[in-house]
């Protein structure tokens, strides 16, 4: 099945590394113009260069997605640079861990409120599009209880529920909203690659819990993202697709 996004304008909030980077590259490779933001300039520059190498137009600027005003400025700048917005991907995460004030604050500010704020800023632009879509990146942590990362699990569950509500609210505007709940994804510089050496006991326990026998790859999440945002998924909205090699089945 060939998926083309030629002529589409895609915004990936949190698009410089890992899953966000792979999603941005996937859209660019399928013909879209892409805007990415993140806090780190070096990662943005590297990913923007990779997007340009695919022959795609790219807009890349730093943005702290915990900052309400900065989000509004970024989305407006992305729309101006690309000539509009057809698709928004909310990928950023504060990676709040345990049941702590700091973990909850990071999760609520970035995983939840950045998703709300970026969506609200982008919706007027997407509404003018033909076949617009929003994709929220959650986690399998949001599907159940978590003794190790209570705040992260709770905010990712909120993203899943918000996706349901967005799907209902935006259907009359013909804007589809879906989510992906990835399992444990390993990539250079990411959490699980770091844990492989810093916390091998945790890494090995999680590794052994995955029926497929390996960690996931960012591009496997990106492939699902492209499908959910494409015309091939034109009657799918308000859904969360689990991409985890069976990890959540255990």
- The protein's oligomeric status is single chain
Helix content range of the residues, please? Answer: 40-55%
**Secondary-structure-derived class:** alpha/beta
Question: What are the low-pLDDT stretches, counting only 5+ consecutive residues below 50?
Answer: none
Overall pLDDT score: 95
How far apart are the termini? 31 Å
GO molecular function: oxidoreductase activity
Keywords: Oxidoreductase
Family: Belongs to the short-chain dehydrogenases/reductases (SDR) family.
Organism: Bradyrhizobium sediminis
Tell me what the structure shows.
The two termini are 31 Å apart. By secondary structure, the chain is of the alpha/beta class. The longest helix has 27 residues, at 101-127. Helix 3 packs parallel to helix 4 and helix 4 (101-127) packs parallel to helix 5 (150-170). The protein has eight helices and seven strands. The radius of gyration is 17 Å and the shape is globular.
Key features?
250 residues, alpha/beta, seven-stranded parallel β-sheet, 14% strand, globular
Question: What topology emerges from the helices and strands here?
Answer:
Elements lengths: L8 E5 L4 H12 L3 E6 L2 H13 L4 E5 L5 H15 L4 E4 L10 H27 L5 E5 L12 H21 L5 E7 L8 H8 L1 H9 L9 H11 L11 E4 L7
Parallel strand pairs: 1-2, 1-4, 2-3, 4-5, 5-6, 6-7
Helix pairs in contact: 1-2, 1-8, 3-4, 4-5, 6-7
Give the gist of this structure.
The protein is of the alpha/beta class and 250 residues long.
């Amino acid at each position: 099945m060939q998926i083309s996004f030629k002529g589409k304008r895609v915004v990936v909030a949190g698009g410089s590394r890992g899953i966000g980077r792979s999603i941005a590259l996937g859209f660019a490779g399928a013909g879209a113009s892409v805007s990415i933001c993140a806090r780190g300039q070096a990662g943005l520059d590297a990913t923007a260069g990779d997007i340009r190498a695919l022959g795609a137009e790219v807009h890349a600027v730093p943005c702290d997605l915990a900052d309400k005003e900065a989000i509004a400025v970024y989305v407006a700048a992305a729309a101006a640079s690309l000539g509009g917005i057809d698709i928004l991907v909310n990928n950023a995460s504060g990676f709040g861990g345990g049941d702590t004030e700091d973990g909850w604050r990071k999760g609520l500010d970035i995983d939840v409120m950045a998703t709300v704020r970026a969506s609200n800023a982008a919706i007027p632009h997407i509404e003018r599009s033909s076949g617009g879509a929003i994709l929220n990146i959650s986690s399998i942590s949001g599907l159940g209880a978590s003794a190790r990362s209570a705040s992260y699990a709770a905010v990712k569950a909120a993203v899943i529920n918000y996706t349901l509500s967005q799907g209902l609210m935006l259907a009359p505007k013909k804007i589809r909203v879906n989510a992906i709940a990835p399992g444990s994804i390993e990539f250079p510089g990411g959490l699980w690659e770091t844990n492989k050496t810093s916390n091998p006991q945790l890494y090995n326990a999680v590794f052994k819990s995955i029926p497929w026998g390996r960690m996931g790859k960012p591009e496997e999440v990106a492939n699902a993202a492209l499908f959910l945002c494409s015309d091939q998924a034109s009657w799918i909205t308000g859904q969360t697709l689990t991409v985890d090699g069976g990890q959540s089945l255990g």
